[in-house]
């Protein structure tokens, strides 16, 4: 077992090969994606981090910190079917938008926009978060309003301004497609195609998006030469009791999976986003958002729930500009006690950015299907956000 885990670490060097895109006949993969091993019929998550103490026991200071329970136990065919669904615009009301339109693989599964664009170019309320390691999370959406992947996806699928579908229409379009009917039978022999199996397949695919083989991870597992002096300095600032980044962005996921009120600014002209106060009704969570992972942060600009910051440097600088400096006048937010004025120097901010860039790892990138069972264009859906270019008001940094 240990050997397998080491293999997972070293697959950083060998490019990951997973399911080939089926060319002639549609067949689902019988192989687990990288990062998982087949146990019986299902894929079990495997990582060196599973050997370390849990997130709670080890505290934020140490590098050898374990992971929370992953979502695993899906069959290879379920995961592979989820991959096809994820890239298939048939999931949207007008066949123009896929999940991948807003969660694009080459942008860390985000869309490069401050605010996402749904069908007919409609503007979503917030920025699309990365989906890397999303299978470890049990608090989803920026305001934490969904507790599972299955609950979360009902949002985009049926929101009028995102994918604009209805459960009835989704079932009608998938059941009218003999390939999907066959593939659902293959992945779910007993249940076949139902709304639930659509959701399970998508959740299975999302849970396979594992990014734990960055240069930082090699360092954490004992290969100390992989980080240079600047990066190590940045890591030490990140973990320090002055900057306190690691208390919220706790390794190895770089999130403690909690909500926190920071008082980040909205784009000019947009009112305060009340965040987690909305779903919870809790006044102390006004302007609170879930602590996002910093994995692959290099690829997911612009940053924060509103996409307010264009660069990592600008984002990191927010933390040293003074507690509450961007809170609109007249608003009183219960800002988290770890947000204060650490007075980081320009050089220290640069080192923090150096460190954040060590968290990039796409070695387990799934294969983007060249075609999907609906026959709709995967590429047009991926380019969707470039086609619809309604400008968003973006102000200067306050
Ligand atoms: C129109 C763009 C768009 C489409 C299409 C879309 N998403 Fe998203 N997604 C977003 C935005 C924006 C958010 C954040 C919304 C919020 O927090 O209020 C989000 C949030 C998420 C999250 C929560 C991640 C986290 O860390 O909290 C998951 C998971 C997710 N989407 C999966 C999907 C899946 C699966 C599909 C396809 C069924 C999909 N998305 C389609 C834009 C989109
Ligand atoms: C009190 C908890 C907390 C602390 C401490 C903290 N963060 Fe954050 N961080 C958050 C939350 C919450 C967000 C999202 C806020 C929003 O969208 O308005 C965030 C967002 C970010 C983002 C943008 C992520 C994205 O996907 O857009 C970066 C980068 C970041 N933090 C880096 C840091 C660094 C560097 C430090 C230390 C100087 C730090 N954070 C300290 C909670 C924290």
From TrEMBL:
<keyword id="KW-0349">Heme</keyword>
<keyword id="KW-0732">Signal</keyword>
<protein>
    <recommendedName>
        <fullName>Methylamine utilization protein MauG</fullName>
    </recommendedName>
</protein>
<dbReference type="Pfam" id="PF03150">
    <property type="entry name" value="CCP_MauG"/>
</dbReference>
<keyword id="KW-0408">Iron</keyword>
<dbReference type="GO" id="GO:0009055">
    <property type="term" value="F:electron transfer activity"/>
</dbReference>
<keyword id="KW-0479">Metal-binding</keyword>
<keyword id="KW-0574">Periplasm</keyword>
<dbReference type="InterPro" id="IPR004852">
    <property type="entry name" value="Di-haem_cyt_c_peroxidsae"/>
</dbReference>
<dbReference type="InterPro" id="IPR009056">
    <property type="entry name" value="Cyt_c-like_dom"/>
</dbReference>
<feature type="signal peptide">
    <location>
        <begin position="1"/>
        <end position="19"/>
    </location>
</feature>
<comment type="pathway">
    <text>One-carbon metabolism; methylamine degradation.</text>
</comment>
<dbReference type="GO" id="GO:0020037">
    <property type="term" value="F:heme binding"/>
</dbReference>
<feature type="domain" description="Cytochrome c">
    <location>
        <begin position="229"/>
        <end position="360"/>
    </location>
</feature>
<keyword id="KW-0813">Transport</keyword>
<dbReference type="GO" id="GO:0046872">
    <property type="term" value="F:metal ion binding"/>
</dbReference>
<dbReference type="GO" id="GO:0004130">
    <property type="term" value="F:cytochrome-c peroxidase activity"/>
</dbReference>
<keyword id="KW-0249">Electron transport</keyword>
<keyword id="KW-0560">Oxidoreductase</keyword>
<comment type="function">
    <text>Involved in methylamine metabolism. Essential for the maturation of the beta subunit of MADH, presumably via a step in the biosynthesis of tryptophan tryptophylquinone (TTQ), the cofactor of MADH.</text>
</comment>
<dbReference type="InterPro" id="IPR051395">
    <property type="entry name" value="Cytochrome_c_Peroxidase/MauG"/>
</dbReference>
<dbReference type="GO" id="GO:0042597">
    <property type="term" value="C:periplasmic space"/>
</dbReference>
<keyword id="KW-0575">Peroxidase</keyword>
<feature type="domain" description="Cytochrome c">
    <location>
        <begin position="77"/>
        <end position="204"/>
    </location>
</feature>
<dbReference type="InterPro" id="IPR036909">
    <property type="entry name" value="Cyt_c-like_dom_sf"/>
</dbReference>
